[in-house]
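Look at a sample.

——
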Amino acid sequence: MRKKILSAIAAGLITLGSFSISTQAASRAEIAAINVQTAADFQFWNYDSPTLQKITEFVEDVTNPNSENFIPPEDRIATFDMDGTFYCETAPIYFQEAMFLYRVLEDDSYQAPKKYLDLAKKIQPKVYAKEKLTPAENKAYFEGLTAVYAGMTPEEYRAYVRNFMETNETGLTNLKRGEAFYLPMVEIISYLTNNGFAVYIDSACGADTTRELVKDIIPIQYDRILASDFNFTSTKMGKDNPHDHFFDRHKEKIVISGKPLHDNAKTIKIFSIINQIGKKPVLAFGNSGGDSGMLEYTLQDNKYRSMSFFVICDDTERELGNPKRAASDTALALKRGWNPISMRDEFKTIYGDNVKKL
């Protein structure tokens, strides 16, 4: 399959119009080759998808200079959550949470503090069984997401993320973590980019984690990634306040402090948009309550035509869908005026046709 795809790309078929992904997950190179310019170029959505019809009609309307809904290119802002919106969050959890368990329980090069080793052993069975953690477990889990990388430079951390991307997803066949992108949603990002939209990620995942996952395959610039931030320190800062500390490039380096993330979720996502974009989006895409702020803000008193979309993980054959949550999420989306996207009914494929639930 990959020979077929790569030869097609070499022949100039950049819109992926002549092949289907049928034997395994799409590679990162194949994902990077997705290039959707017009409504006719979509390959991974079902023909009768209501979402695809709404999005293509919206784009054609607001990019038409003769339309009363025309949006100038400088105001065409689209924001996307990442995990569960265009990237897998179900196998069995978010990428960086899964990486924490790997770091503590499987990485032979790392000796975890007893606190986090005991925590990981306790919660791993719950996580894999999709059982709810206690508030205390969740708090310790969140702290551990950064604590177990304390002392790493940003470059060392990003290299660790890249290595973890090569591991296999849990619960799905033929899928590496670095390949676990929803192909239909990658098409939407490409389509918007090619039609003059500035696409931003507004995610609760860590900034450097997000950057490595999307690097070279999703057409989103580094400075358009809004995400949870690490706390950093320097190897010579000690108890100094950062604003008082003189950084000596010859004697010290910047490292992860190990303090908890500055979490980018719910209403904080609005603050990130205001502070880092400075304009209200006209399109927003999410999949959980953590995205509610972004979705609601996009629709509130917008001077332009605007829409919010909500990805529903209701596929139990090609994904690790949860029917109960899917029904609840669909009801929430309809109540709030967010357009639900059914992975089961609207995606022709998710990762590739041979990626199935174990």
Q: What stands out?
A: Residues 314 and 321 are 5 Å apart (CA to CA). Confidence is low (pLDDT under 50) at residues 1-23. Residues 92-168+230-262 form one domain. The two ends are 22 Å apart (CA to CA).
